[in-house]
Design a protein that fits this description.
By secondary structure, the protein is mainly α. It contains two helices and no strands. Helix 1 runs antiparallel to helix 2. The chain starts with about 30 loop residues before the first helix and ends in a 7-residue tail after the last helix.
Length: about 180
Amino acid sequence: MTFMKAQSSVPAEESPKLEPSATVELPAEPSPAELRARKMLITGLVVAGLLLLSLIALLVFLSMDAYQAAQVGGPPSPGSIVVGLLRDAAIIFVAFETLLIGLLLIILMLQVQSLVVLLRDEIKPMLEAVNETLATVRGTTQFVSHNVVSPVIKWSGYLSGLQRIAREIGGLRESGRGRDPKNEE
């Protein structure tokens, strides 16, 4: 993952030099969000395991009950026992699928949570650095506009006005030379 480096207004000679061997160490302890996520995952896995074990125990109990009913010679026929066992197995299979989907939803929630942590801890500071750089550029633009461009435009206007006045004065002299003051009377 690459990170954007914000440019500073400090000249290169004054900026601190980093040694090439300097490395960034990750914190040894996980963040509170990671601890919470691990705790939720372990709790979900324990609950899912207990539900699966209870479903297996229920299936065994139902199988033994159906077998005893068949041995006693009571009204249920062997076909109805097999159909009952298949029905129970299908119910258990659907319950297991539901459990698996729930587990996958928990994993999805944890991934979304890690994405939010990533956005908050890494991308937000980069965006703040970009905003700071843009503010610096905006300030520099205003400074240049106010202290360089505006005076140049004003002086250009003054010089243009002086040039026009000089042309008018020169034009009056030329028109004044062409006339004879004695003829005007």
